[in-house]
What we know:
Elements: E1 2-3, E2 11-12, H1 19-27, H2 33-39, H3 44-53, H4 56-67
Antiparallel strand pairs: 1-2
Amino acid sequence: MTRLRKNMKAVPVLRQWTTEQDGFLIEHADLAISELIQLLPYTEEEIKVRKKVLGLLKRERQFRKIIT
């Protein structure tokens, strides 16, 4: 199953995320992937895909651009 987002490619839904897990990921988006893997029951790929779906990767790039 895939989920199609506006202006994005189809992103495969590997496992369902709860609202609480999404909130945790949003609040702790600045943590390293290795730390998130230990705190969340998902793989590195699943976390990266979810961050992309939530727009956290784009947000991170925008912040880096402002800081540098």
